[in-house]
Amino acid sequence: MYVCNCNGIRERQVRAAIDGGASKPAEVFRAHGCKPQCARCVCEMREMIDQSREALRYAAE
Ligand code: FES
């Protein structure tokens, strides 16, 4: 499933960028060598980053 239709970034690619250290949407774009265009996907990327942080916090407890 695509998260970013403008740049063709799929959900698994966003997760890979987050796993690689991306902590904000701009870093997800950078990891894939592109820039936001319409920015409609930014909220979903932020949610994925927040979910990843929550999962890590849970795992640390
Ligand atoms: S959907 Fe990601 S920049 Fe447009």
Summarize the amount of helix as a percent range: 55-70%
CATH-scheme architecture: Orthogonal Bundle
Give the total of beta strands: 2
Question: Which compounds are bound in this model?
Answer: FE2/S2 (inorganic) cluster
Number of domain units = 1
CATH class: Mainly Alpha
**Secondary-structure content class:** mainly alpha
State the strand order across the main sheet: 1-2
CATH-level-4 superfamily name = BFD-like [2Fe-2S]-binding domain
CATH-derived topology: Arc Repressor Mutant, subunit A
**Mean pLDDT over the full residue set:** 96
Number of helices: 3
How are the secondary structure elements laid out?
Blueprint: E1 2-4, E2 9-10, H1 11-19, H2 25-31, H3 42-60
Bound molecules: FE2/S2 (inorganic) cluster (FES).
FE2/S2 (inorganic) cluster is lined by residues 4-7, 36-41.
What does this structure look like?
The chain is mainly α and 61 residues long. The chain has a single domain, classed as Arc Repressor Mutant, subunit A. 57% of the residues lie in helices and 8% in strands. Strands 1-2 form a two-stranded antiparallel sheet. Strand 1 (2-4) and strand 2 (9-10) form a beta hairpin. It is elongated, with a radius of gyration of 11 Å. The mean pLDDT is 96.
